[in-house]
Fold these 3 entries.
Entry 1:
Amino acid sequence: QVQLVESGGGLVQTGGSLRLTCAASGRTISTYYMGWFRQAPGKEREFVAAITWSGSSTYYSDSVKGRFTISRDNAKNTVYLQMNSLKPEDTAVYYCAAVIASGLLRTIVAGRGFDHGYWGQGTQVTISS
């Protein structure tokens, strides 16, 4: 079992930055693909970013590409999401997910591979206009 706990959410103004942290426990996440997802009120959960075991490959949704950066520190069993140039439409609950997988990240995401993994409880991010 892998337990995931997100933190770092909050209220910021448009154009501001936040860094989300996903702390894992129970097992090392060095063999897991890690992802960030978000769900806004009244909307379905959507993919944000994902990263492979070593961090050598990343994948982003078009809506956050160039503004968000996913990274990981396997020694700390932690994954990060640096969010810059935040917009009101980024307001959502952000979730961290872990899955044992291989292959292209875009394939894993398109196949909803993370649905079969572990999820955290989420952290609220609110961007004021």
Entry 2:
Amino acid sequence: QLHLVESGGGLVQSGGSLRLSCTASGFTLDDYAVGWFRQAPGKEREGVSCIRSRGGRTNYAGSVKGRFTISRDNAKNTVYLQMNSLKPEDTAVYYCALPYPGVDCGPALLLPEYHTWGQGTQVTVSS
């Protein structure tokens, strides 16, 4: 059974950094592309970044490009989202998920194309 757990969220001041983790159990995460999404209060869930399987291509939403970096640690079966230069508008619950077969890690991360959502981790950026 596929299972993902997000961690690493917290409260940080504007300009600070956090590293989120998405850890898999029951399967080898490197065999899958992984997407990160976020949902701010009162807003729809939106795609943030994705990484292809086996260290392949990465993509980022325009709002985070240059500030966030997605990467893998296969020894830990984990995908990370390093978030730098955080802004109050980055405040949200962050989720990781897996794309359905045939869905590429492209510039647009569409919610219906992803499954096996984790429980999310809260990121709060104070001004």
Entry 3:
Amino acid sequence: QVQLVESGGGLVPPGGSLSVSCTASGSIFRLIQMAWYRQAPGNERELVASINSGGAINYADSVKGRFTISRDNANLYLQMNNLRAEDTAVYYCNLIDARSRYWGQGTQVTVSS
């Protein structure tokens, strides 16, 4: 079983920066991918960025050029720059290994003046 714990969310004004982190613990069996998703009120959960075991990275069009995903062993990071009001959401860490798919509990990011 794998546990994911996010941290680093908070309130930031438009145009500001924020980083969120995720720490994975437990028994990871053949890691396939780690990713950040987000869900705003009334919306479906959407992929923000992903990084696979080979290091290939994918971003949602809405965050390209503003967000940077990185991974260090079992730690996942998301650096968010030039934040917009529409980036307000709960951000979830996701991990896929050869056995299952796991989710963190989420961390709130609010972009507001």
